[in-house]
Design brief:
It is a single chain. 0% of the residues lie in helices and 47% in strands. The chain is an all-beta fold and 287 residues long.
């Protein structure tokens, strides 16, 4: 079956020029920190021991972002210290999930079109708007997403965000949710019921964050016209669908961008013509 490979705005870096480590205020390494060069298409992820490396000059500002820590924009230092983020909790009414009924929302399906990360820690997100019918199944039970991984047990981070002015804002999850996926085309179903997330009236955005770590690294052949190149990417590749609604987002360079439909006419109709690319994500809601 024909497979279509699509790229985000990928550029590939050479050998790393700087090396550092990300730690907390107690000097404990922080794994899987999202790291970008400010306003540039250059980024990476810290390894399990907090270490990172980048092909960039030392005078550039770097943006460090991780769940549970304050975002930091700073020039390069061999040791980056992130401060913990303390959230002010509003008064809430505690409700218990019965889980006696459930619905699946999202309309995503498995197709052989995939998105590669290149060598950047993109977050690829999908918006789920609130509908009144969700009031009977107001708890988020599971997140379903489709992957086509070149590596066995590739790791990826799941993010869930509040929405403000149609842009992702605060993390709803209070801890890293790192999951592994099997090699090949897979449907991944992740139980998130323990977080007791109620579907917000403003909607929510589920993001899939590529981890630019050695474990996920692989080489692939890329044909550019008549020439062939061997490039580096990081598993897993994400399955994508196409939508008439602008409901997908990408995080790069330390900021969010809403993906837009680009209208054009072609002689040969493609499934992505006059559509927006969306990561194949569904949700299961329960009562």
């Amino acid at each position: 079956m024909k497979k279509t490979v699509l790229f985000l705005l990928i550029s590939y870096s050479l050998n790393a020029q700087i090396k550092g480590v990300v730690v907390d205020e107690n000097n404990i390494p922080i794994p899987y920190v999202n790291i970008w060069v400010e306003n540039e298409n250059i980024g990476t992820t810290s390894e399990e021991n907090g270490s990172f490396q980048l092909n960039v000059s030392k005078d550039k500002n770097l943006i460090f972002s991780a769940i549970g820590y304050k975002k930091s924009t700073t020039f390069f230092k061999e040791k980056i210290v992130l401060e913990k983020e303390f959230y002010k909790l509003e008064d809430v009414v505690i409700q218990t999930s019965k889980q006696t009924k459930e619905i699946e929302i999202g309309d995503s399906k498995k197709i052989h079109h995939r998105q590669l990360s290149g060598d950047k820690p993109w977050i690829y997100g999908k918006l789920f708007s609130y509908e009144t019918k969700y009031s009977e199944t107001s708890f988020l039970k599971s997140i379903i997403f489709y992957t086509d991984s070149r590596k066995e047990k590739a790791k990826i981070k799941i993010r869930v965000y509040e929405v403000k002015d149609s842009i992702p804002t605060n993390d709803i999850l209070y801890e890293d949710l790192i999951v592994t996926v099997k090699k090949g085309m897979r449907k991944n179903k992740i139980d998130v019921s323990k977080y007791k997330i109620m579907f917000p009236k403003n909607g929510l955005i589920v993001g899939l964050e590529w981890l630019i770590i050695d474990f996920n690294k692989y080489d692939f052949d890329y044909k550019d016209g008549k020439s062939e190149k061997i490039l580096v990417s990081y598993a897993p590749d994400l399955v994508i669908n196409y939508s008439d609604i602008e409901n997908s987002y990408r995080f790069s360079g330390g900021k969010w961008t809403k993906n837009k439909i680009i209208f054009f006419k072609t002689k040969n109709k493609n499934p992505w013509d006059n559509k927006v690319m969306v990561p194949a994500i569904n949700l299961i809601l329960t009562n």
